[in-house]
Design a protein that fits this description.
The protein is mainly alpha-helical. Helix content is 56%, strand content 9%. This is DUF3990 domain-containing protein.
């Protein structure tokens, strides 16, 4: 059975946007993403891939459980933003900006 599933690193969109917009350097980006340890995510991009996914387990969550998970997720998100901000300040003058990398490749 052929499966079309892509493994990609979960990326912190705000940090990536800041890099591509020229606000932070490559060292700030790499160190931020490394420190956040965001794990991996699987994406099924086609109908064929979706049909080949096997759900191994299902669990029902109460409204209270969902609310607690939302609160925990928001807390972790804010901690991640704070950590990324500190790393970006640390590497503010180290590394290269996106436009500098592009120019070097010309």
């Amino acid at each position: 059975m052929h499966r079309i599933v892509f493994l990609v690193g979960i990326c912190y969109n705000l940090t990536l946007d800041r890099f591509f917009n020229g606000e932070i350097t490559d060292l700030a980006l790499v160190n931020s993403l490394s420190a956040l340890q965001l794990g991996k995510q699987y994406l099924a991009l086609t109908e064929k891939a979706c049909k080949n996914i096997t759900i191994l387990d299902e669990q029902e969550l109460s409204e209270a459980d969902r609310n607690e998970l939302k609160r925990e997720s928001e807390t972790n998100r804010l901690k991640g933003i704070e950590m990324a901000e500190e790393i970006c300040r640390t590497y503010r003058r180290e590394g290269r900006f996106f436009d500098e990398i592009l120019k070097a490749g010309e």
